């Protein structure tokens, strides 16, 4: 298992960024890689609240973890401390043991330079899942905000 970290400066207040992290409509729009579409099945933004999301590849080439072209993960919110912190634990739904196991994602938000510094730490990433599919923040599944920009408007 590995740990990855992504850091982004966002041109929005910590409250606005926090709101985007706990909104099912916002999650469906931005927390998905460019090559996939998202469906939010369950999303209860409260401590202990459930999360279940499917990400489906736009093209038929890539193999999914949960079904032929889909990655579905489910989990729960562990801690919510508005507007500074969101901690969730997620696990891919898969028959392949290489993809199983809980990943903890800690989003820390700090006011900085007229916006928000977002740090997303992903603990427990599986070796079978390359970083582009487990780093659900920062231009991939972590935040979906462009990886090529260090200052992004929300």
UniProtKB/TrEMBL annotation:
What taxonomic classification does the UniProt entry list for its organism?
A: Bacteria, Bacillati, Actinomycetota, Actinomycetes, Micrococcales
Instruction: Report which superkingdom the organism of origin falls in.
Output: Bacteria
Source species of the chain: Naasia aerilata
- Which region ranges are annotated with the description Disordered? 51-75, 124-154
Family from the record? Belongs to the AHA1 family.
Q: Which InterPro entries match?
A: ASHA1/2-like_C (IPR013538), START-like_dom_sf (IPR023393)
- Domain annotation Activator of Hsp90 ATPase homologue 1/2-like C-terminal: ranges: 12-145
- Where composition is biased (Polar residues), the residues are 145-154
Name of the protein in its database record: Activator of Hsp90 ATPase homologue 1/2-like C-terminal domain-containing protein
């Amino acid at each position: 298992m590995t740990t990855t970290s992504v850091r982004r400066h966002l041109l929005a207040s910590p409250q606005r960024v926090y709101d985007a992290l706990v909104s099912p409509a916002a999650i469906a729009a931005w927390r998905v890689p460019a090559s996939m579409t998202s469906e939010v099945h369950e999303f209860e933004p409260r401590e202990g609240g459930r999360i279940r999301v499917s990400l489906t590849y736009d093209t038929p080439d890539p193999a999914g973890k949960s079904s032929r072209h889909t990655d579905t993960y489910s989990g729960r919110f562990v801690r919510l401390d508005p507007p500074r912190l969101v901690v969730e634990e997620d696990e891919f739904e898969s028959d392949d043991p290489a993809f199983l196991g809980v990943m903890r994602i800690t989003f820390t938000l700090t006011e900085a330079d007229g916006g928000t510094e977002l740090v997303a730490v992903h603990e427990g990433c599986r070796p079978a899942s390359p970083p582009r599919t487990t780093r659900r923040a920062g231009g991939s599944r972590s935040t979906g905000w462009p990886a090529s920009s260090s200052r992004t408007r929300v």
